[in-house]
């Protein structure tokens, strides 16, 4: 999950520019509603497939379960913490929590997503939603731990992880919210990045009535395809001579930026649209042997492999590589450790059902086409038919960093374009915005402006009308904002007006390339 912005920067990061003006995100406003019942009595609430295990008031400080190493979150508004277990199937064991502000409820509900194969409640993300006045909820997706071992011999648990735990949590959480306040939430939102972005799209695709608005950040929507790519690269890099150490990825990154930074007409250290970058790593190839200032022939081949595309078993999607500009996030085995681990578990526990399987057994000819077998396809969120969600007035705000080294941003672009091809540009413009973020890594971080307030943008869009035509992002160094830049709806790009500081968003406008 992307970290919420610090409170002392909320005003700047909450700026959402529309075609007619600027609107700042408003702070949470107390509903002043009389609570329908006390917190403790929620344990007797009857909800389908749900056993409420505890309900208690928490004041200011929350110590997460798990002992001395568990996080302690301070500065929270007073809330009612509800824990529950959901059993929609005989083999299900889904844990959820619902947090209900007692004095500062804004009348709305926001659920938060998970990461990787994560089987844990997202307490930090829940705290961010709570501070904004939301009733909020999170699930462990039906298992404990951050591997896919739970799926071995348990097809119902794989279904829980893929989509059922999120939907069942939503139904139960809304029931708890309604019982506690005596009113259903006026608006319900989903907010997730990475695996949480995949969950976001799955909700829009399969359960269009669950949420009024959805934030999908850097979504792992082609879960099995990313798995195949990460494992494919790691297999190729079993040869140490082909690996790129950190000094070589830095060398490569600097050469890429030097070659492609100015393609948007502005040299600012960030590649605005890496799809236009035709950089060939062969320009760095050593003429003789190896040196710190060049790449060996094997290392050039590795760079090409990481950038490259692979044809997937589903002709409607490609298995995308990483983009020029993402090099600082690469590891000596290619993609991030999380991407490799997620992919290995996909093959080990979902595709082959063999706990002993490892990367050295990977066979590209047979194992790339196998990625969607063993139930693996149900985790993907690649269905472009969002018509039922849009027809209900649902709004989808989707973002992805161009320099993401963990989930290829091309997946997001391809998905958006397939939705447009399925439903038409006019329908999509009314209900779906994709913001590609130059220089941003996975869910945040990176050399470009990478902190921005998607919640404020979605609230304004869904509740007050007017799709976000620009979202302002900030970059900070040592806690100080040193650059702001507009994020533009894809395929528009932020274009310098020609005067003023290149570090000030007001000196840019969104235009078609």
Question: What would you note in describing this structure?
Answer:
This protein is α/β, with parallel strands linked by helices. It has three domains: 1-20 and 197-221 and 381-513, no CATH class; 47-186, no CATH class; 225-377, no CATH class. It is 29% helix and 20% strand. It contains 13 helices and 17 strands. The protein has helices at 10-13, 123-131, 155-181, 195-206, 223-236, 246-260, 297-307, 337-351, 364-367, 387-391, 409-423, 425-431, 454-464, and strands spanning 16-17, 22-23, 50-63, 72-86, 94-101, 109-112, 135-139, 188-193, 213-217, 310-311, 318-319, 395-401, 432-437, 470-477, 480-487, 493-496, 508-511. The strands form four sheets. The chain has a nine-stranded mixed β-sheet with strand order 3-4-5-7-6-8-9-12-13, with helices on both faces. Strands 2-1-14-15 form a four-stranded antiparallel β-sheet. It has a two-stranded antiparallel sheet with strand order 10-11. A hairpin with a 2-residue loop joins strand 14 (470-477) and strand 15. The longest helix has 27 residues, at 155-181. It starts with 9 loop residues before the first helix and ends with a strand.
How many β-strand stretches? 17
- Global outline: globular
Largest sheet descriptor: 9 strands, mixed
Number of domains as seen in the coordinates: 3
Unreliable spans are 1-28
Taking all Cα atoms into account, the compactness measure Rg is 23 Å
- Content of β-strand: 15-25%
- Average of the residue pLDDT scores: 92
CA-CA gap between termini: 31 Å
């Amino acid at each position: 999950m992307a970290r919420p912005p610090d409170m002392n920067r909320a005003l700047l990061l909450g700026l959402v520019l529309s075609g007619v003006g600027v609107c700042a995100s408003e702070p949470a406003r107390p509903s002043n509603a009389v609570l329908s019942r006390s917190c403790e009595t929620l344990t007797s609430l009857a909800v389908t497939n749900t056993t409420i295990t505890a309900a208690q008031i928490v004041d200011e400080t929350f110590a997460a379960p798990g002992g001395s190493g568990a996080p302690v979150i301070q500065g929270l508004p007073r809330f009612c913490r509800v824990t529950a277990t959901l059993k929609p199937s005989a083999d299900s064991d889904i844990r959820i929590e619902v947090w209900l502000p007692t004095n500062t409820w804004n009348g709305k509900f926001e659920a938060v997503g998970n990461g990787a194969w994560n089987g844990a409640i997202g307490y930090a993300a829940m705290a961010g939603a709570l501070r904004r006045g939301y009733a909020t909820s999170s699930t462990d997706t039906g298992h404990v731990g951050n591997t896919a071992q739970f799926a071995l011999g348990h097809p119902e648990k794989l279904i829980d992880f893929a989509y059922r735990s999120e939907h069942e949590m939503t139904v139960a959480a809304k029931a708890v919210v309604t019982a506690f306040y005596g009113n259903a939430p006026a608006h319900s939102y989903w907010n997730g990045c990475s695996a949480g972005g995949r969950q976001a799209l799955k909700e829009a695709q399969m359960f269009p009535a669950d949420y009024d608005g959805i934030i999908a950040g850097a979504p792992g929507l082609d879960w099995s395809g990313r798995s195949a790519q990460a494992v494919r690269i790691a297999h190729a890099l079993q040869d140490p001579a082909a690996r790129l150490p950190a000094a070589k990825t830095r060398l490569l990154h600097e050469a890429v930026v030097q070659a492609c930074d100015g393609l948007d007409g502005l040299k600012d250290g960030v590649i605005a649209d890496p799809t236009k970058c035709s950089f060939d790593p062969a320009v760095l190839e050593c003429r003789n042997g190896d040196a710190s200032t060049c790449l060996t022939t094997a290392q050039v081949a590795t760079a090409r492999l990481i950038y490259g595309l692979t044809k997937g078993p589903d002709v409607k999607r490609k298995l995308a590589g990483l983009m020029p500009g993402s090099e600082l996030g690469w590891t000596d085995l290619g993609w991030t450790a999380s991407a490799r681990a997620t992919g290995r578990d996909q093959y080990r526990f979902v595709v082959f059902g063999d706990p002993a399987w490892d990367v050295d057994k990977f066979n590209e000819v047979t194992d790339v086409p196998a990625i969607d077998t063993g139930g693996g396809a149900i985790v993907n969120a690649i269905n472009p038919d969002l018509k039922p969600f849009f027809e209900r007035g649902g709004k989808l705000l989707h973002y992805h960093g161009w320099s993401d080294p963990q989930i290829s941003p091309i997946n997001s672009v391809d998905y958006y374009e397939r939705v447009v091809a399925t439903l038409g540009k006019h329908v999509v413009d009314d209900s779906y915005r994709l913001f590609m973020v130059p220089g941003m890594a996975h869910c945040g971080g990176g050399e470009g402006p990478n902190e921005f307030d998607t919640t404020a943008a979605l609230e304004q869009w869904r509740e007050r009308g007017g799709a976000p035509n620009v979202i302002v992002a900030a970059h900070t160094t040592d806690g100080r904002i040193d650059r702001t830049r507009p994020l533009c709806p894809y395929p528009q790009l932020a274009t310098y007006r020609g005067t003023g500081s290149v570090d000030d968003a007001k000196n840019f406008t969104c235009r078609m390339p």
